[in-house]
């Protein structure tokens, strides 16, 4: 009875935290296909404006138009990552509580699902923090143009897909939500034995948790690598070196 109450309390805690943010769940966990299409359209428009700005740098209307478009896109991404970070933090605390519950700890499926939910939420929070800090530092228009150029370069290579990287926090959060729901359901469908004896160790749950840990670590490393490649510092440094070489030649 106490175990069921604890699991129910975990769910209520998560539900109330989501309600506190109003439409957070709807906006932050929208279908990824819609998020992907919307983001791809925004970035494509920015790429066109960046190319036009480089082709006609003296056009007085282009810089303002690009800056307005960039601010709207960057603000949308930052708000999305902020929302997913909040929900991920809630999932981390909730799943950590679930893992201490006897009904979850006594079921291989529930325990493994809760562990996967915890790992995915932790990775979502880490990826979201990396992306948020990276994009929040881009203030100057020339850095934004360089960022768009780096994004196009990575997109042409097709791996890693930078668009998928920008949506990685939402993707991981969806996996965490699915695993959390599975853990919540299986803790009632497959309760531990009434004898109270600890379950016999099995390799499958450990293998599943290890695979989830490896996948989350790989995703986080991929986000960190992509963020480094998108950083406008390298492009700005190349431009400065080229300008300095041209000055010396003259």
Mean pLDDT, nearest integer?
Answer: 78
What level of helicity do the residues show?
A: over 70%
User: Low-confidence runs (pLDDT<50, min 5 residues)?
Assistant: 18-29, 240-250
Major sheet description: none
Provide a count of the helices: 11
Return the structural class. Answer: mainly alpha
General form: elongated
End-to-end CA span: 83 Å
Number of structural units classed as domains: 1
Order of helices and strands: HHHHHHHHHHH
Fraction of residues in β-strands: under 5%
Instruction: Report Rg.
Output: 23 Å
Number of strands: 0
What is the secondary structure topology, with strand pairs?
Elements: H1 2-20, H2 24-28, H3 32-55, H4 61-99, H5 102-105, H6 108-136, H7 141-157, H8 162-166, H9 168-189, H10 203-230, H11 232-249
Helix pairs in contact: 1-4, 3-4, 3-7, 4-6, 4-9, 6-9, 6-10, 7-11
């Amino acid at each position: 009875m106490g175990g069921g109450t604890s699991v129910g309390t975990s769910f209520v805690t998560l539900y109330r935290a989501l309600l506190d943010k109003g439409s957070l769940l709807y906006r932050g966990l929208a279908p990824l296909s819609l998020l992907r299409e919307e983001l791809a359209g925004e970035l494509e428009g920015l790429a066109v404006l960046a190319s036009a700005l480089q082709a006609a740098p003296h056009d007085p209307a282009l810089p303002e138009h690009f800056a307005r478009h960039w601010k709207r896109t960057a603000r949308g991404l930052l708000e999305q990552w902020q929302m997913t970070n909040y929900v991920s933090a809630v999932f981390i605390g909730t799943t950590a509580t679930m893992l201490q519950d006897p009904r979850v700890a006594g079921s291989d499926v529930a325990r493994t699902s809760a562990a996967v939910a915890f790992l995915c939420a932790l990775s979502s929070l880490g990826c979201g923090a990396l992306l948020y800090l990276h994009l929040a530092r881009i203030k100057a228009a020339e850095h934004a143009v360089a960022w768009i150029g780096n994004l196009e370069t990575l997109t042409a290579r097709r791996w890693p897909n930078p668009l998928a990287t920008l949506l990685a926090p939402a993707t991981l959060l969806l996996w965490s939500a699915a695993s959390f729901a599975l853990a919540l359901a299986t803790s009632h469908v497959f309760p531990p034995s009434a004898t109270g004896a600890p379950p016999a160790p099995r390799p499958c749950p450990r293998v599943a948790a290890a695979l989830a840990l490896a996948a989350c670590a790989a995703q986080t490393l991929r986000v960190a690598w992509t963020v480094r490649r998108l950083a406008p510092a390298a492009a700005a440094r190349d431009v400065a070196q080229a300008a300095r070489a041209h000055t010396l030649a003259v």
